């Protein structure tokens, strides 16, 4: 009996020790697991903090604060900008050192058959792929708004204005004529950004005047700034008299340029990647959806457009005919086509398509 009792006591003691062993091991395991989980969470938090820091430093262009001026070195370091050629004096390419060809002659009409002048350029190398009468004087009409756009984008970069600035509309802007947004002095909610869409998508003349007044305070000062910028770019045959491209009422010389000069302007615009945000927009609504703007550029449309075309600007008036500056990208290569002074819209569009086709064919042949 004593022997049996001894065995039972021994078994009970063994059971107690085993239970204690598992309790202790379980606790250690939980502590180890908790420690591992905490370490993992710390690693995730640390990684997230690094990710958030990186994202904070990569601000989109539109969020650049006033006063943040883009330096020349930053331009070179920006991969989006460095892809677009910056003209110098290289032969066979667009050059910025051409002699002065300004003219005061007031031509009645500058319209050719099938155009007054044309040129096609490789936007990445500046190589002239096709040109015919590229230096012939032309009246660019609303193509002028590309310079309006460029001056505005540079003013934004310099912190002079901001995309969110409210536009003040006065009687000078109201009912300016031609294509319009029909801006009204009672409107107070339209912004610089709205006006940029207005000039690039709808070719609104009143929006162009509104931007000029917002930046320079007067039409004459803004046009003076446009001409100074043209000179710096190397547009030696170009002279602006307006901020929108409409011909003067007194039949004096309108804005005058050449296909060659407009190609230089197109390159300058494309060095601002946000240009394509405005020129490549097919449809946009302003005034809380009450105003619809549709692109005037048939080549930039998704239906029956030209594959890869995302800009740039159309133009027309009776003395200058129909003009189109087009740009398209295919297989990583971008080209620019300029057609000025065609007799009608269909001819202008058909010629532009053919010139773009030929331009891409030349690029592919030289790969």
Structural class by secondary-structure content: alpha+beta
Shape: globular
Trace the largest sheet across and list its strands: 2-1-7-6-5
Number of self-contained structural domains: 2
Mind summarizing the main beta sheet? 5 strands, antiparallel
**What is the mean pLDDT?**
84
Task: Give the topology, please.
Elements lengths: L1 H56 L14 H6 L1 H4 L34 E6 L5 E5 L12 H13 L34 H10 L3 H12 L2 H15 L25 H12 L4 H5 L3 E4 L4 E4 L14 E9 L3 E10 L2 E10 L2 H21 L2
Helix pairs in contact: 4-6, 4-8, 5-6, 6-7
Structural overview:
The chain is α+β, with helices and mostly antiparallel strands and 367 residues long. The protein folds into 2 domains: 1-32; 73-365, DD-peptidase/beta-lactamase superfamily (Beta-lactamase), CATH 3.40.710. Helix content is 42%, strand content 13%. The protein is built from 10 helices and 7 strands. The protein has helices at residues 2-57, 72-77, 79-82, 145-157, 192-201, 205-216, 219-233, 259-270, 275-279, 345-365, and strands at residues 117-122, 128-132, 283-286, 291-294, 309-317, 321-330, 333-342. The strands form 2 sheets. The chain has a 5-stranded antiparallel β-sheet, sandwiched between helices. A two-stranded antiparallel ribbon has the order 3-4. Helix 4 packs parallel to helix 8, helix 5 (192-201) runs antiparallel to helix 6 and helix 6 (205-216) crosses helix 7 (219-233). The radius of gyration is 32 Å and the shape is globular. The chain starts with a helix and ends with a helix. Mean pLDDT is 84; it is low at 18-78.
